[in-house]
Each structure stands twice: as structure tokens, then as C-alpha cells.
Amino acid sequence: MTDFAFEHRYSRQIRFRHLGAEGQARISRARVAVVGLGALGTASASQLARAGVGYLRLIDRDVVEPSNLQRQLLYTEDDARLAKPKAIAARDALAAANSDIEVEAVVDDLDAANAEQLLADVDVVIDGSDNFEVRYLINEVAVKHNLPWAYAGAVEAHGTSAFLRPGHTPCLVCLIGYGARVGHDTCDTVGVIAPIVQWMASFQVAEVLKFLAGREDALSDAILQADLWHTDVRLIRMGQPKPDCPCCARREFVALGAGRRALSVTFCGRQTIQVRPQHDASLSLDALAARLRPLGHVRASDALLRFETGDVALTVFPNGRALVHGTDDPARARALYAQYIGM
Ligand SMILES: [Zn+2]
What we know:
Number of domains: 2
Bound molecules: zinc ion
CATH architecture of the largest domain: 3-Layer(aba) Sandwich
Radius of gyration: 20 Å
Order of helices and strands: HHHEHEHHEHEHEEHHHEEHEEHEEEEH
CATH superfamily of the largest domain: NAD(P)-binding Rossmann-like Domain
Structural class: alpha/beta
Strand order of the largest sheet: 3-2-1-4-5-6-7-8
């Protein structure tokens, strides 16, 4: 905790007539979960922490890599060299920016088995993920538990952002159906520039601050779409939820109902596949390091173990989850997991 006076620290927000002391007090009591600590997630989390949101839960499965530094503003070269888990690196950076708030780091993958638990006890969820599997899960948890959430995505120089409130606005399935899972461009395939990410994150955070401050009257209830390269901006009114939406009208939660698979694999970007066992394990990373040392290069901490051999590398977490780097082949990823971690 600092000895900075509250009224002084947040004076510029308190002076802003649409927030005032009452709005700031509400923001300071608020609890927000951020799913995905890439460019969007770190930009949003940074603004929320500095705005004084009282509690932030940062959820991310990945580690910091050199290609993140161009746009993920909370990370340093040291974080990339040490391959720090993003949730932990982000928590540490935010704690240095505002030690008056509580920041919890969760180094895990949000999935059907843990989504409701990881998104419990918060007022709002921020989507900073880069994939639709996670977005559909967030949307279903949001609808099921009447939880507002801010959606955003950005690739190349264009992006989309919207603040969705169950019962008031359409849900994600009302807006785009269930068809967005496959074949969409990602930052790994087509690239992205930082300004569009910052803009989409800023729109998310502005809407979230309005909501947290109790100023629902100021919400846009619109989708922002922008292309910064061609300087094209659109604001599309969302209208009403669809009366026949399978998710928010019929409450069929297909993503949450999918449950956990045996030894599941998920694509996490170019040349990286996540493998996780059906049930969380409790691995001794020290014992694993000793076993793997004769087979390649090993670096281990309490939080993770990194093992490099030949053209592949594995990042292993204590709960048994692993990122297999250097292949796009799920079968090979599973085989490497079985070979080196053994489950
Ligand atoms: Zn819906």
C-alpha cells in the first residue's frame, strides 16, 4: 500500500464530471477479470489498474516471447528472456504501477471445465483472448451468470470492440452465430500493429468504466469497427437480443457443455500447440528437470520448466499443462508430451 492520498491519486477522474467522487468510489470497489494477457489484455489491464479498479484477476496460459514486445506494453526484454508466464509478468508490472489495488495472477488456460470458476466473483470480464473458443466460453458464462463482458479483437490494422450486457444487448452468438471458430485471421498469420490494439482496448475500458461507475445511461450499446490503415471508422448499433438465440434465449450452453477431453490439444499460434491432461496433475518440476537434463537443455523455476531438444521445445507447468513449440502437428505434440513428460 502507498501513502498517496486517494483524492489526489485519482483527482483527474474525480474532477471528470461524468465520474466524480461517487463514480471513482464505485470503480475502486469493482472487480474485473481479464482473460488473455496479450496486446489487448495488457492494454486494458493497465488502464484499469491505473484507474484504480480495486481487484483484477489476470488469466493467461502463455509465456512472454520476443515477438510480444512490439505491442504488449507491460512486458520487458527480461520477461521474454526468462520466458516468464504472462499473468505473472503482468501482475508484477501492474503492482509497480498501483500497489493500492489487488492483482491476482492465474497461469492457466480458460476452458470448459474451469471457466465458471475462473470468472466467478467479478463484476465484468474483459476479453483479451485471441481465439473464439475462449470467447464463446466467456459469452456462455456471461449469459448464464448475468455478467457483462467486453469483447475485442484486432488483426492487421483493423479491429472490433463491443460491451455486451446479458438481457440488454445481443450476446456474441446473437451477433455472429457459432461460425467464427475456424479459418479466421490471427496476429500470427497476418500480423498486427499496436495502435489498433490500443484503440480497441481503450473502447473496451471506456465502456467498462461507465458501467462500473454506475453510468449505464452513457453506454454506447454499439459495436466499434475501425481500420486505421484505411482510416475507416464505423459505429453499429447493436439493437436487441435475438428472440431465438440458442445461447441467450434458449440457454443452450454448448461450449461449456463440451467438458474436458482426454489429452487435449489446442493451437496457440504459429508452431505452438498446448497439450493438457484430462485431470490436473501435480508435477515435481525438479524431478522432471533431473529426468530431462541428459536429453537436452533444461531451465526450471517454481512456475515452469523449459526443455529444448532438437527442433522443438516444451514449456511445462506444475499442473501438467504443456506448450509444445516447434510443430503444428497435434499428433506430434501429443507424442512429444508422452515421450518427455509421460502421461
Ligand atoms: Zn444471444
